[in-house]
Amino acid sequence: MKVVVVMMMCVCLEWIQQYSDSLIKASSLQQNIDQFMNDYDTQKEEEAERQKEEAEHQQEDEEGWVKVTKGSRGVKVRPHSETANERTLQKEKKKKERKELLNFYTWQHRNTQKEYIAELRKKFEEDKQRIAVLRAQRKFRPY
User: Fold this and answer.
1) How many folded domains does the chain comprise?
2) Partners of 66 in beta bridges
3) What is the Cα–Cα distance from 111 to 104, expressed in whole angstroms?
4) Structure pTM?
5) Of 44, 71, 75, 45, nearest to 57 (Cα)?
6) Is residue 123 part of a domain?
7) In what ranges is there compositional bias, type Basic and acidic residues (predicted)?
8) Who contacts 102 (Cβ-Cβ below 8 Å, separation ≥6)?
9) Which residues, in sequence order, are bridge partners of residue 60?
10) What string of H, E and C letters represents the secondary structure of 110-135?
11) Is the pLDDT of residue 115 over 90?
12) Under 8 Å between Cβ of 57 and 69
Protein backbone atom coordinates (compact mmCIF):
# COMPACT_ATOMS: atom_id res chain seq x y z
CA MET A 1 0.00 0.00 0.00
CA LYS A 2 2.78 2.41 0.91
CA VAL A 3 4.65 1.58 -2.30
CA VAL A 4 1.62 2.50 -4.40
CA VAL A 5 1.17 5.80 -2.56
CA VAL A 6 4.86 6.67 -3.01
CA MET A 7 4.67 5.84 -6.74
CA MET A 8 1.55 7.98 -7.13
CA MET A 9 3.28 10.89 -5.43
CA CYS A 10 6.29 10.54 -7.76
CA VAL A 11 4.01 10.56 -10.78
CA CYS A 12 2.15 13.59 -9.45
CA LEU A 13 5.41 15.42 -8.81
CA GLU A 14 6.50 14.69 -12.40
CA TRP A 15 3.21 16.06 -13.71
CA ILE A 16 3.54 19.17 -11.58
CA GLN A 17 7.09 19.66 -12.88
CA GLN A 18 5.97 19.22 -16.51
CA TYR A 19 3.13 21.70 -15.99
CA SER A 20 5.38 24.31 -14.40
CA ASP A 21 7.92 23.86 -17.22
CA SER A 22 5.21 24.36 -19.83
CA LEU A 23 4.27 27.78 -18.41
CA ILE A 24 6.01 30.82 -19.85
CA LYS A 25 7.82 32.99 -17.35
CA ALA A 26 6.43 36.51 -17.02
CA SER A 27 9.83 38.17 -17.36
CA SER A 28 10.69 36.37 -20.63
CA LEU A 29 7.21 37.10 -21.96
CA GLN A 30 7.63 40.78 -21.13
CA GLN A 31 11.01 40.85 -22.89
CA ASN A 32 9.48 39.29 -26.01
CA ILE A 33 6.65 41.81 -25.99
CA ASP A 34 9.04 44.74 -25.54
CA GLN A 35 11.24 43.51 -28.39
CA PHE A 36 8.23 43.11 -30.68
CA MET A 37 6.90 46.57 -29.85
CA ASN A 38 10.32 48.16 -30.46
CA ASP A 39 10.57 46.45 -33.85
CA TYR A 40 7.03 47.56 -34.69
CA ASP A 41 7.74 51.16 -33.71
CA THR A 42 10.91 51.32 -35.83
CA GLN A 43 9.03 49.80 -38.78
CA LYS A 44 6.29 52.42 -38.46
CA GLU A 45 8.87 55.22 -38.26
CA GLU A 46 10.60 53.95 -41.40
CA GLU A 47 7.25 53.80 -43.19
CA ALA A 48 6.43 57.36 -42.14
CA GLU A 49 9.84 58.58 -43.38
CA ARG A 50 9.37 56.82 -46.70
CA GLN A 51 5.94 58.39 -47.16
CA LYS A 52 7.35 61.81 -46.30
CA GLU A 53 10.07 61.36 -48.95
CA GLU A 54 7.48 60.34 -51.54
CA ALA A 55 5.41 63.41 -50.66
CA GLU A 56 8.47 65.63 -51.16
CA HIS A 57 9.06 64.10 -54.59
CA GLN A 58 5.45 64.80 -55.55
CA GLN A 59 5.74 68.55 -54.88
CA GLU A 60 5.93 71.05 -57.70
CA ASP A 61 9.29 72.32 -58.83
CA GLU A 62 10.05 76.01 -59.61
CA GLU A 63 8.44 75.76 -63.07
CA GLY A 64 5.22 74.27 -61.73
CA TRP A 65 5.80 70.71 -62.90
CA VAL A 66 5.10 67.66 -60.76
CA LYS A 67 7.26 64.60 -61.19
CA VAL A 68 5.07 61.51 -61.44
CA THR A 69 6.72 58.33 -60.28
CA LYS A 70 5.64 54.76 -60.48
CA GLY A 71 4.32 53.69 -57.10
CA SER A 72 2.35 50.86 -55.64
CA ARG A 73 -1.25 50.93 -56.77
CA GLY A 74 -2.98 49.04 -54.03
CA VAL A 75 -1.15 45.78 -54.48
CA LYS A 76 -3.25 43.03 -52.95
CA VAL A 77 -1.52 41.52 -49.96
CA ARG A 78 -2.21 37.86 -49.46
CA PRO A 79 -3.11 36.62 -45.98
CA HIS A 80 -0.30 35.01 -44.06
CA SER A 81 -2.05 31.89 -42.79
CA GLU A 82 -1.43 28.66 -44.63
CA THR A 83 -5.09 27.79 -45.13
CA ALA A 84 -5.82 31.25 -46.50
CA ASN A 85 -2.91 30.90 -48.94
CA GLU A 86 -4.24 27.53 -50.10
CA ARG A 87 -7.73 28.99 -50.53
CA THR A 88 -6.50 31.90 -52.63
CA LEU A 89 -4.34 29.60 -54.75
CA GLN A 90 -7.32 27.32 -55.37
CA LYS A 91 -9.44 30.32 -56.37
CA GLU A 92 -6.78 31.46 -58.82
CA LYS A 93 -6.50 27.94 -60.23
CA LYS A 94 -10.29 27.70 -60.73
CA LYS A 95 -10.29 31.11 -62.39
CA LYS A 96 -7.55 30.01 -64.76
CA GLU A 97 -9.38 26.76 -65.59
CA ARG A 98 -12.57 28.69 -66.30
CA LYS A 99 -10.75 30.95 -68.74
CA GLU A 100 -9.12 28.00 -70.48
CA LEU A 101 -11.00 27.04 -73.63
CA LEU A 102 -11.68 23.35 -74.10
CA ASN A 103 -12.90 22.18 -77.51
CA PHE A 104 -12.24 25.52 -79.11
CA TYR A 105 -12.57 24.16 -82.64
CA THR A 106 -15.70 22.39 -83.85
CA TRP A 107 -13.78 19.27 -84.86
CA GLN A 108 -12.53 18.97 -81.27
CA HIS A 109 -16.08 19.16 -80.00
CA ARG A 110 -17.22 16.50 -82.49
CA ASN A 111 -14.36 14.19 -81.49
CA THR A 112 -15.16 14.46 -77.79
CA GLN A 113 -18.85 13.77 -78.51
CA LYS A 114 -17.91 10.68 -80.57
CA GLU A 115 -15.65 9.40 -77.81
CA TYR A 116 -18.38 9.94 -75.23
CA ILE A 117 -20.96 8.08 -77.33
CA ALA A 118 -18.53 5.22 -77.99
CA GLU A 119 -17.87 4.94 -74.26
CA LEU A 120 -21.61 4.85 -73.52
CA ARG A 121 -22.15 2.11 -76.13
CA LYS A 122 -19.30 0.07 -74.65
CA LYS A 123 -20.81 0.37 -71.16
CA PHE A 124 -24.22 -0.60 -72.53
CA GLU A 125 -22.79 -3.77 -74.10
CA GLU A 126 -21.03 -4.68 -70.86
CA ASP A 127 -24.26 -4.16 -68.93
CA LYS A 128 -26.18 -6.34 -71.41
CA GLN A 129 -23.65 -9.14 -70.94
CA ARG A 130 -23.77 -8.81 -67.17
CA ILE A 131 -27.59 -8.99 -67.19
CA ALA A 132 -27.50 -12.08 -69.45
CA VAL A 133 -25.12 -13.80 -67.00
CA LEU A 134 -27.37 -12.93 -64.06
CA ARG A 135 -30.45 -14.27 -65.89
CA ALA A 136 -28.61 -17.50 -66.68
CA GLN A 137 -27.76 -17.96 -63.02
CA ARG A 138 -31.37 -17.40 -61.99
CA LYS A 139 -32.71 -20.78 -63.13
CA PHE A 140 -35.40 -22.45 -61.06
CA ARG A 141 -33.91 -25.19 -58.88
CA PRO A 142 -36.47 -26.87 -56.64
CA TYR A 143 -33.79 -29.01 -54.83
Assistant:
1) 1
2) 60
3) 12
4) 0.32
5) 71
6) yes
7) 42-58, 79-91
8) 108
9) 66
10) HHHHHHHHHHHHHHHHHHHHHHHHHH
11) yes
12) yes
